[in-house]
Every structure is written in C-alpha cells, then in structure tokens.
Amino acid sequence: MPIRTNRDRLPITAVVGEAAPALINTGLYDVSFEGEPLIVASVGGINPNVRVGDGAFAFRADHIEPGVSARNPDDRANTAFNVLSCVGNEAQVVSGEAKGAAGRVTGKHGGVEHVIIDFTPEVMRAMAIGDRIQVWGCGVGLELLDAPDVKAFNADPDFLEAWGLAVRDGRIRARVARTVPAAVMGSGLGRATVVRGDYDIQTFDDTMAERYGLRELRLGDLVAIIDADNSFGRIYRTGAISVGVVVHGGSYVAGHGPGVTTLLTSSIGAIDIEIDAAANLATILGLR
User: Three-state SS for 62?
Assistant: First the structure.
C-alpha cells in the first residue's frame, strides 16, 4: 500500500543560499589514486551542461556538482540551509536576471557543504555567481508511519510519493537503479549525522566496478547500499540497507567517487528493492 507519513506535522521553512563560486585545490593539482597530477574542474559553480540524468563519469572533472551549487556565506546559516534543504524541495531564484525561475533540490555535498539545485540550462545561463536562491525546506523530522524500522532523511515527502514507495508488513519497497556493496563506500564514513552532506562510492577496483556496474552510475540515480546502516552515522552493518541518491560525479582521488546523500536506512534490512533503470531524479521529478 502507499506510504503514510507525518507530513502534516512538518514545517515548511524558507532557507536561502547563493550560487557558489567554482573551487579549485589551493595547490592547483590533485593527485590521482595512480599518482597522476591533475588539474580539472571540481565543486561549485553554475554548470548548465551537467545535470541529473548525465553519467557520473561523463565529464573530465572531479566531484562535479550538477546544476547550481548553492551555499550561504554565513557558516551558521549555511548549516541550516544544508540540513533543512531536502531532495525534491522547491527552489526559486530570488535575485538577479533569472529572478523568479523555479528549480528543485537534487542533493547535498559534504565538506564544502553545498546544496545542489537543478534548473533548466536556459535559467542557469541567465544566472550569475552570488544570485540568491530560496528553498522551501521540508522533510527534516519525516517519519514513515507504517515502517518503524526504516528511517527517512533528506527527503521531501512529495518526492517519496513521486518515487512510488510502498509499504507492506512494516517493510518499504523502493525502486533503485543499482545496488552498491558497502565494502566500496569511502569518504564520508563515520560522520555523526546523515542529515547533511554525502558519502562516496569508490570505483577503483575493476572487479567490483564491473560486477555492480558502478561506472555506469548517473547523477540522480537512486541506489541501494547493501550492508550499510546510516541510522546514526554511516557504518558497515551486515544485513542493514541504506538507499540514497547520487549527488555528484566521480573522482580520481583515493577514497572518493560519486557521492550519495542518504534517503532511507534500516539497520535490520526492512527495505525491499526493485531494480529499475528509470529510478533517477531526472525521470521521477520530470527534470529532463
């Protein structure tokens, strides 16, 4: 049956950030896992040709963020901006030439603490770094009323409905594009909270990458991480399962790779998955 949530008790809170500048390593070079020095595009900026639905490895870049990367210049306000913004939330440009244009939150990136927002390419080309973007934050405190063993994070309740989540006998059924073994999860492990940021899928082992199709991941893909418990931080736990969305592109740097923002987790594995290649934000939210 369809999921029931406590959405009627969730506040909708306006939070605001700015289109953030592109960033490059202060030493210019990153060093790949094979020891190769690299200078490539990375986090931040406005990227009109990089969007959810594109391959996570389609661009000569490192940790590339699709669409617009947004951040509040005040660190304390940015914490609220990052935590309260949830995947699927509505966003609106509130200053500059693109004022009034609508977008959708597609993820959060740890470290730099960016909120990642999709707009059409035409809107993005009208935008400038520093333009203000307001997000109608809703989703923090979300509960799945008929699945007490499954926790929800970082998700707009309307997005969960569009995704088509269902519940039966206390178990959630979720469509995902791929499964990922917890053994390859890297940067972001051990963080005490999953209501901000992401953690990375390492794709350096050819055997694992081929077995699970990891190099075919797309930005915006819904993925199930097997034997991963994200209930109170990101840990390996046999039998657990976590489901999240791919929020940034691949990486050449050891321990890093496409980032995943957590949406659902169950320490006892109370999530049944259905493989569906169309389980991507571009399709679910009608962004492409």
Answer: coil
Note whether 266 and 31 are within 8 A (CB). no
- Grouping H, G, I as helix, E, B as strand and the rest as coil, residue 78 is helix
CATH number at residue 77: 2.40.10.170
Domain limits at 56? 11-137
62-118 residue pLDDT tens: 999 999 999 999 999 999 999 999 999 999 999 999 999 999 999 999 989 999 999
Q: If you count them, how many residues does the chain have? A: 288
Residue 185 has which token pair?
A: 């999860």
The dihedrals phi and psi of 25, each to the nearest 5 degrees, come to -45, 130
User: How many domains does the chain fold into?
Assistant: 2
pLDDT attached to residue 2: 85
Q: Whole-model pTM?
A: 0.96
Q: Within this chain, do residues 228 and 107 fall inside the same structural domain, yes or no?
A: no
Give the list of residues 6+ apart from residue 113 with CB closer than 8 angstroms, or none.
71, 78, 79, 82, 196, 197
